[in-house]
């Protein structure tokens, strides 16, 4: 036997193989879609259900799966087997690492210039603020999930606590944004510790469900405690932030009037943009600092091996609690910003959906990487906006993108870990070695 | 045995459900000495370690750790991290437990957590970059560098711990334990998986740790050449009870020990009888 | 007392539905160690398919209710099982040996896909059906005129659940597939070395879990008389809570957790407030986990040092 048949077949599956595979896929699709797409139900005029058939749509879908299956199979052959190791030439690697080093400053400068470049494009400014909010949320959750390795599916709870703290303090007591901002962070951190206590002993998926339950509890309480939170109607008339007490309004004591320029609503958007940018950068700076402090190293060590941490005299309880509190605090800041930017909040903004989205940003970013999280937030939120025109298909496409991105890059866009201290030279640590934590 | 024990284990028992892993064990570990705990597989040695280092709460019995200044600590009353933090007992693990995704240097920095936590003013001084913190950090890096040098890993300081060869990982784990500046160092099979040359280097390292730092060492070991060569005192366990103790020479000639090993595993018995000559 | 007895019945029926969904979570968790976030949506799809099959059969002029129910059950189980299989094949199998969070996010993504797929395919409005099974028995007539009733549909839900559980227990304990599943749960590598087709076993786990969820979906449709594209989320979270409460990985635990959640919810609504019933369920979960970190019937995790 000269040729190895196994290798041959795997290298060049013939047309028959591809066709067979596509036919099987099409058949599966036919069964799957037969009733869900082939038949459409709707409540009729008298409330009774009626249905009609859509065989054309069904045929189109099955055809699409058949064609798609062939295309995917051809692409796979063209691409080669998935698990082959591709050797990247040293020059390309050097180029990539240089680009990697240059990217953050370039990105930062560009971000600073966004309001200048897009001053007249309100839509882009709004989108930029949204992206930055998620960058900040991602960086905040990154402390808990990426560094400490604790899985938190209820991060949105802290976002909600921050938002409602500001909204209620401002509307009930007339406190200004700048006083409420730290308060919102502290309150959220407090709730983080409160959540932290019961979950200290839990691991993995138990932790996941408890954090998820916690997020739901907070949301349900916000919906039902009508006297305090306004229930599903939310809180309206949340004051806008001021610049050292000067409102950015068309009034006589407004900033525009004081500067003697013509008022424009864009001023406020730009102001909000720089607030969230500053908050996000603060989050980033603190996180980078913390990583190089004993507390941050203890977080990462906790992710790597909790038993070894205890053997080294690290109090894992306080270490976990500080991680929860720090992450929650950033979430609280972001929440307060969200409230002041919207001027209106309701429990609808704080669903599990948001938690999942922020978690997706952290994981897609490559757990622990600050740059990765920023890029992932840009990709996810920006991409989501791109599909705005798709209307009701938007979440469908979004879900598919999430699945595909995970399959494409399970360890995220930037999978390396940068050491926090080095003797001679800092070398990135491959993601294969970095543990994901068990919490 | 004469009188300056760092660790006194008194009538220690540990039961898991109906299984008695350690039964009424009493022994002392002398200060600045190397005490070895040996015995066939399943004798309960690691359980003893887990009790001493607080991972298990013993069913009954006491463990008293006496510091050089006379301060005594009952280990059974402390739990997990406090034993390392307050009683200054450090340990390594049978199946190496490094932080694989962190560099060798970072591993040693994590070991100095408690000292650095104080120096960083519970993080706040560190966050603003106070000079006192910077000095403390430099000192910590220096200590780490010293230990990396001692275990011959200075060149690999910036490599991920998980990337190091097995023998290096074992030595790094010892260095990491030493960075907590322990009074008592507990090593769980430090020579497991090492070749003869590496075992010899390990023996030398342990002897030098004892000589230069005055650290008392308690070790579990199957490699009889290491045990016979470096230990001052040997405690032999079988089925959860102590069956013998004494100098390596006494142990080697003790018929009870030989019988225990013969009952368990012929090869190990031969190793006991032939080693250390 | 009568009021309490009535609530107990209602709670047990709701709990049976949760239990059926929870088994799917627990099986998948036991064998691949991941939370199948899309499982709640599989339940929803099951409900939709049952609804559509029912409509078609009725429009064909079928009137024999037992026959309709049987056909609906079989069709819904078969098609939903295929959904379960497809989800595993597309979203989880490529990530089988990957980093733990990747399959979880892929599952969350899949859940979004299924929710919005049925919204797009069937519209966002709630789909009501007229009561299909009516009638019941009066168990006890109280002094104040309060009646404890056991409706036929409640009987059907409980009986179906019990029968399926018996069938399922037999499947896991006495068939070759069940043995393979338990082997994969212990050690996939070893199982494959001993000739167990791991891929096939895992696929079958998803298929069975989805089929049970389809039954739950159909029961939900019969009991509440409506389905909508969003019902998978809440029911999924509740069932997952049930699985964790009972001790994830444990099959009796899933059923026990399901019943408990059903009872807590019903009794809380009856005696305290409807608004906070979910808060009560989640709070009890948290409290239980504080004292029993691996749930009621879960194996305690032994920390190997």
UniProtKB/TrEMBL annotation, chain A:
<feature type="transmembrane region" description="Helical">
    <location>
        <begin position="393"/>
        <end position="410"/>
    </location>
</feature>
<feature type="domain" description="High-affinity branched-chain amino acid transport system permease LivHM N-terminal">
    <location>
        <begin position="18"/>
        <end position="113"/>
    </location>
</feature>
<keyword id="KW-0472">Membrane</keyword>
<feature type="transmembrane region" description="Helical">
    <location>
        <begin position="127"/>
        <end position="151"/>
    </location>
</feature>
<protein>
    <submittedName>
        <fullName>High-affinity branched-chain amino acid ABC transporter permease LivM</fullName>
    </submittedName>
</protein>
<dbReference type="InterPro" id="IPR043428">
    <property type="entry name" value="LivM-like"/>
</dbReference>
<dbReference type="InterPro" id="IPR021807">
    <property type="entry name" value="LivHM_N"/>
</dbReference>
<feature type="transmembrane region" description="Helical">
    <location>
        <begin position="99"/>
        <end position="120"/>
    </location>
</feature>
<dbReference type="Pfam" id="PF11862">
    <property type="entry name" value="DUF3382"/>
</dbReference>
<feature type="transmembrane region" description="Helical">
    <location>
        <begin position="58"/>
        <end position="79"/>
    </location>
</feature>
<keyword id="KW-0812">Transmembrane</keyword>
<feature type="transmembrane region" description="Helical">
    <location>
        <begin position="356"/>
        <end position="381"/>
    </location>
</feature>
<feature type="transmembrane region" description="Helical">
    <location>
        <begin position="15"/>
        <end position="37"/>
    </location>
</feature>
<feature type="transmembrane region" description="Helical">
    <location>
        <begin position="321"/>
        <end position="344"/>
    </location>
</feature>
<dbReference type="Pfam" id="PF02653">
    <property type="entry name" value="BPD_transp_2"/>
</dbReference>
UniProtKB/TrEMBL annotation, chain B:
<dbReference type="InterPro" id="IPR051120">
    <property type="entry name" value="ABC_AA/LPS_Transport"/>
</dbReference>
<keyword id="KW-0813">Transport</keyword>
<dbReference type="Pfam" id="PF00005">
    <property type="entry name" value="ABC_tran"/>
</dbReference>
<dbReference type="Pfam" id="PF12399">
    <property type="entry name" value="BCA_ABC_TP_C"/>
</dbReference>
<dbReference type="InterPro" id="IPR003593">
    <property type="entry name" value="AAA+_ATPase"/>
</dbReference>
<dbReference type="GO" id="GO:0015188">
    <property type="term" value="F:L-isoleucine transmembrane transporter activity"/>
</dbReference>
<dbReference type="InterPro" id="IPR032823">
    <property type="entry name" value="BCA_ABC_TP_C"/>
</dbReference>
<dbReference type="GO" id="GO:0016887">
    <property type="term" value="F:ATP hydrolysis activity"/>
</dbReference>
<dbReference type="GO" id="GO:0015808">
    <property type="term" value="P:L-alanine transport"/>
</dbReference>
<protein>
    <submittedName>
        <fullName>ABC transporter ATP-binding protein</fullName>
    </submittedName>
</protein>
<dbReference type="GO" id="GO:0015192">
    <property type="term" value="F:L-phenylalanine transmembrane transporter activity"/>
</dbReference>
<dbReference type="InterPro" id="IPR027417">
    <property type="entry name" value="P-loop_NTPase"/>
</dbReference>
<keyword id="KW-0067">ATP-binding</keyword>
<comment type="similarity">
    <text>Belongs to the ABC transporter superfamily.</text>
</comment>
<dbReference type="GO" id="GO:0005886">
    <property type="term" value="C:plasma membrane"/>
</dbReference>
Automatic annotation (TrEMBL), chain C:
<feature type="transmembrane region" description="Helical">
    <location>
        <begin position="99"/>
        <end position="118"/>
    </location>
</feature>
<comment type="similarity">
    <text>Belongs to the binding-protein-dependent transport system permease family. LivHM subfamily.</text>
</comment>
<dbReference type="Pfam" id="PF02653">
    <property type="entry name" value="BPD_transp_2"/>
</dbReference>
<feature type="transmembrane region" description="Helical">
    <location>
        <begin position="202"/>
        <end position="223"/>
    </location>
</feature>
<dbReference type="GO" id="GO:0015192">
    <property type="term" value="F:L-phenylalanine transmembrane transporter activity"/>
</dbReference>
<keyword id="KW-0029">Amino-acid transport</keyword>
<keyword id="KW-1133">Transmembrane helix</keyword>
<dbReference type="GO" id="GO:0015808">
    <property type="term" value="P:L-alanine transport"/>
</dbReference>
<feature type="transmembrane region" description="Helical">
    <location>
        <begin position="280"/>
        <end position="298"/>
    </location>
</feature>
<feature type="transmembrane region" description="Helical">
    <location>
        <begin position="153"/>
        <end position="172"/>
    </location>
</feature>
<feature type="transmembrane region" description="Helical">
    <location>
        <begin position="12"/>
        <end position="35"/>
    </location>
</feature>
<keyword id="KW-0812">Transmembrane</keyword>
<dbReference type="GO" id="GO:1903806">
    <property type="term" value="P:L-isoleucine import across plasma membrane"/>
</dbReference>
<dbReference type="GO" id="GO:0005886">
    <property type="term" value="C:plasma membrane"/>
</dbReference>
<keyword id="KW-0813">Transport</keyword>
């Amino acid at each position: 036997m000269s040729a190895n048949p196994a290798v041959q077949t795997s290298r060049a599956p013939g047309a028959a193989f591809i066709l067979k595979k596509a036919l099987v896929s099409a058949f599966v699709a036919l069964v799957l879609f037969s009733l869900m797409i082939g038949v459409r139900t709707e409540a009729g005029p008298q409330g009774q259900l009626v249905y009609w058939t859509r065989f054309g749509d069904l045929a189109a879908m099955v055809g699409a799966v058949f064609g798609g299956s062939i295309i995917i199979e051809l692409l796979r052959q063209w691409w080669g087997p998935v698990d082959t190791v591709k050797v990247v030439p040293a020059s390309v690697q050097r180029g990539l690492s240089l680009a990697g080093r240059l990217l953050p400053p370039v990105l930062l400068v560009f971000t600073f210039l966004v309001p200048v470049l897009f001053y007249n494009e309100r839509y882009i400014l709004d989108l930029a603020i949204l992206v930055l909010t998620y960058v900040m949320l991602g960086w905040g959750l990154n402390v808990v999930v990426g560094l400490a390795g604790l899985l938190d599916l209820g991060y949105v709870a802290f976002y909600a606590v921050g938002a409602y703290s500001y909204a209620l303090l401002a509307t009930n007591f007339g406190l200004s944004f700048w006083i409420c901002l730290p308060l919102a962070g502290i309150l959220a951190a407090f709730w983080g510790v409160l959540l932290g206590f019961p979950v200290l002993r839990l691991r993995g998926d138990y932790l996941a469900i408890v954090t998820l339950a916690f997020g739901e509890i907070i949301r349900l309480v916000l919906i039902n405690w009508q006297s305090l939170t306004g229930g599903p109607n939310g809180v309206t008339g949340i004051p806008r932030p001021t610049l050292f007490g000067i409102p950015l309004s068309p009034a006589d004591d407004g900033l525009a009037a004081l500067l003697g320029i013509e008022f424009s609503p864009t001023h406020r958007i730009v102001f909000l943009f720089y607030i969230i940018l500053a908050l996000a950068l603060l989050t980033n700076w603190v996180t980078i600092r913390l990583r190089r402090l004993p507390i941050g190293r203890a977080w990462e060590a906790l992710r790597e091996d909790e038993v070894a941490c205890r053997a080294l005299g690290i109090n894992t309880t306080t270490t976990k609690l500080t991680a929860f509190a720090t992450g929650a605090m950033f979430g609280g800041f972001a929440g307060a910003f969200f409230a002041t930017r919207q001027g209106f909040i309701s429990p609808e903004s704080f669903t599990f959906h948001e938690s999942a989205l922020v978690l997706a940003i952290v994981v897609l970013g490559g757990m622990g990487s600050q740059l990765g999280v920023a890029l992932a937030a840009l990709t996810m939120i920006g991409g989501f906006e791109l599909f705005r025109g798709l209307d009701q298909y938007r979440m469908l496409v979004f879900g598919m993108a999430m699945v595909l991105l995970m399959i494409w890059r399970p360890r995220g866009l930037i999978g390396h870990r940068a050491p926090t201290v080095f003797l001679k030279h800092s070398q990135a640590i491959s993601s294969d070695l970095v543990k994901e934590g068990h919490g | 045995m004469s009188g300056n024990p760092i660790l006194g284990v008194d009538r220690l028992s540990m039961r898991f459900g109906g299984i008695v892993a350690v039964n009424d064990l009493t022994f002392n570990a002398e200060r600045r000495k190397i005490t070895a705990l040996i015995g066939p597989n399943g004798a309960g040695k690691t359980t003893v370690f887990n009790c001493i280092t607080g991972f298990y709460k013993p069913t009954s019995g006491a463990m008293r750790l006496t510091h050089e200044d006379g301060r005594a600590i009952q280990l059974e009353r402390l739990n997990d991290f406090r034993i390392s933090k307050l009683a200054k007992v450090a340990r390594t693990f049978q199946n190496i437990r490094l932080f694989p995704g962190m560099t060798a240097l970072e591993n040693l920095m994590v070991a100095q957590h408690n000292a650095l936590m104080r120096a960083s003013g519970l993080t706040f001084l560190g966050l603003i970059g106070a000079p006192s913190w910077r000095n403390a950090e430099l000192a910590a890096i220096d200590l780490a560098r010293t230990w990396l040098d001692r275990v011959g890993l200075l060149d690999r300081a910036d490599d991920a711990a998980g990337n190091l060869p097995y023998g290096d990982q074992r030595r790094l784990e010892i260095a990491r334990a030493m960075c907590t500046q322990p009074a008592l160092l507990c090593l769980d099979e430090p020579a497991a998986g090492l070749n003869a040359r590496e075992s010899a280097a390990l023996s030398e390292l342990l002897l030098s740790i004892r000589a230069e730092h005055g650290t008392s060492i308690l070790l579990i070991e199957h490699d009889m050449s290491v045990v016979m060569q470096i230990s001052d005192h040997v405690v032999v366990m079988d089925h959860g009870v102590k069956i013998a103790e004494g100098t390596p020479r006494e142990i080697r000639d003790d018929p009870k020990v030989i019988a225990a090993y013969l009952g368990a595993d012929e090869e190990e018995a031969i190793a006991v009888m032939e080693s250390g000559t | 007392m009568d009021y309490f007895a009535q609530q107990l019945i209602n709670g047990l029926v709701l709990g049976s539905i949760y239990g059926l969904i929870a088994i799917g979570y627990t099986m998948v968790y036991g064998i691949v160690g991941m939370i199948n976030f899309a499982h709640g949506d599989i339940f929803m799809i099951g409900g939709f398919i049952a609804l559509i099959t029912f409509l078609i059969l009725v429009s064909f002029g079928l009137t024999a209710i037992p026959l309709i129910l049987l056909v609906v059950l079989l069709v819904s189980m078969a098609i939903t099982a295929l959904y379960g299989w497809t989800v595993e094949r597309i979203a989880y199998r490529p990530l089988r040996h990957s980093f733990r969070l990747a399959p979880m996010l892929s599952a969350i993504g899949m859940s979004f896909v299924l929710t919005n797929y049925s919204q797009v395919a069937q519209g966002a409005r709630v789909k009501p059906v007229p009561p299909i099974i009516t009638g019941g028995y009066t168990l006890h007539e109280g002094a104040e005129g309060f009646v404890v009733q056991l409706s036929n549909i409640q009987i059907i839900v409980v009986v179906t659940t019990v029968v399926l559980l018996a069938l399922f227990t037999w499947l896991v304990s006495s068939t070759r597939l069940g043995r393979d599943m338990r082997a994969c749960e212990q050690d996939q590598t070893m199982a494959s070395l001993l000739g167990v087709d791991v891929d096939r076993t895992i696929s079958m786990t998803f298929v069975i879990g989805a089929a049970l969820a389809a039954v739950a979906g159909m029961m939900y449709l019969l009991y509440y008389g409506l389905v909508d594209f969003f019902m998978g989320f809440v029911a999924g979270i509740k069932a997952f809570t049930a699985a964790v409460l009972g001790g994830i990985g444990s099959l009796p635990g899933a059923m026990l957790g399901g019943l408990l959640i059903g009872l807590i919810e019903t009794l809380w609504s009856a005696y305290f407030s409807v608004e906070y019933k979910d808060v009560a369920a989640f709070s009890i979960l948290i409290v239980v986990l504080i004292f029993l970190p691996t749930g009621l019937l879960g194996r305690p995790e032994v920390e190997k040092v």
